[in-house]
Write a structure and sequence with these properties.
Layout: H1 17-23, H2 26-42, H3 49-73, H4 75-80, H5 88-91, H6 96-117, H7 120-144, H8 148-152, H9 154-157, H10 159-168, H11 173-196, H12 198-204, H13 209-212, H14 214-235, H15 244-266, H16 269-274, H17 278-303, H18 306-309
Helix pairs in contact: 1-3, 2-3, 2-10, 2-17, 3-6, 3-7, 3-10, 6-7, 7-10, 10-11, 11-12, 11-14, 11-17, 14-15, 15-17
Length: 312
């Protein structure tokens, strides 16, 4: 990590609980919790409510640990980028050392407690997820290759697998479908953001695809990945975690997403700049709803009677 002096920054005010909570990336944590809950409830095993709640809590703490460690490692980048300059470390409310200590403490606690509340396989997957996000993605891929978000997206795709393993204690085909859904969704989601935030990544020296290959190439990549994503998403309807309800949600969502990706592909740089990347921003916002509604459909299908919404 490049030293920019964040360790010695004078605090403008004493850090409060909200500052330390912000270190844990609460928005990301919400997505982690939601997809982990879907993985747990979609599993063909009933889990005692107390065990389920405790286990998901520890997964959330593990996600928070990853966020704090990521902010510690990326403090130099965050200070340069407009989108992240107000985060606790670059703004001076929390030191990088405090973030590091908090992150490692929460990581150790979450892994140990998940092993006790659920099983060792789930705890092992949580530990690997934290390791992957901090070491593989943050420390290595993010600063060295435009494939950073492609490979690094695996870190965000593990929560539903962990949720499934909490319930079953084992791995099977179904949780990897949920993993694939998030994994293939991640590149077009973040590349859309990078299209209208290219200057941020350029200034910070992050080799996002928009920086290394330009916006035209990025637009093509978004469309190709969206086509693959549509195949994965709709194909999931014909598995045990899909069903008619899921299919009814997935088809229109993917038509909209494909339409948005195609519109981005067809746009020129001049068109994008003329309207302040309106289409790209719209696609980015749609991508958030896209993932939420797909996992919401999986959850609804798991909670509804099979006779109503299943294939049998």
């Amino acid at each position: 990590m490049v030293d920019i002096g964040v360790e010695t920054t004078v605090h403008e005010h004493d850090a409060g609980l909200s500052d330390y909570f912000a270190l844990m990336k609460p928005r990301v944590m919400q997505l982690v919790v939601f997809t982990a809950v879907v993985g747990l409830l979609a599993a063909p095993v009933n889990v005692h409510p107390i065990i389920a709640i405790a286990s998901i809590l520890f997964v959330a703490i593990g996600a928070g640990a990853s966020g704090a460690l990521n902010m510690w490692w990326d403090a130099d980048i965050d200070a340069v980028m407009k989108r992240t300059a107000k985060r606790p470390i670059p703004s001076g409310t929390v030191t990088a050392e405090e973030a590091k200590i908090l992150g490692f403490a929460l990581a150790g606690m979450s892994i140990m407690m998940l092993a006790l509340s659920a099983n060792f396989l789930a705890a092992g997957l949580l530990a690997f997820t934290i390791f992957f996000y901090i070491i593989i993605y943050s420390a290595w891929l993010k600063r060295t290759t435009p494939q950073n978000i492609v490979i690094g997206g695996a870190a965000g795709a593990f929560p539903p697998v962990i949720g499934w393993v909490i319930a079953t204690g084992s791995l099977s085909f179904e949780p990897w479908l949920m993993f694939a859904l998030i994994f293939v969704w991640t590149p077009p989601h973040f590349w859309a953001l990078a299209l209208f935030m290219k200057a941020d990544y350029h200034d910070a020296g992050v080799p996002m695809l928009t920086v290394t290959h330009g916006r035209t190439s990025t637009r093509k990549h978004i469309f190709v990945y969206t086509v693959v994503l549509a195949l994965v998403a709709v194909g999931t309807a014909f598995t045990s975690i899909g069903g008619l309800l899921y299919l009814a949600a997935s088809v229109p969502l993917n038509i909209l997403f494909l339409k948005g990706a195609y519109e981005i592909w067809c746009r020129s740089e001049a068109q994008s700049e003329a309207d302040d990347y309106k289409t790209e921003k719209k696609f980015f916002k749609l991508s958030l709803w896209y993932l939420f509604l797909h996992f919401g459909a999986i959850l609804a299908g798991a909670l509804m009677p099979i006779a109503w919404f299943g294939w049998s």
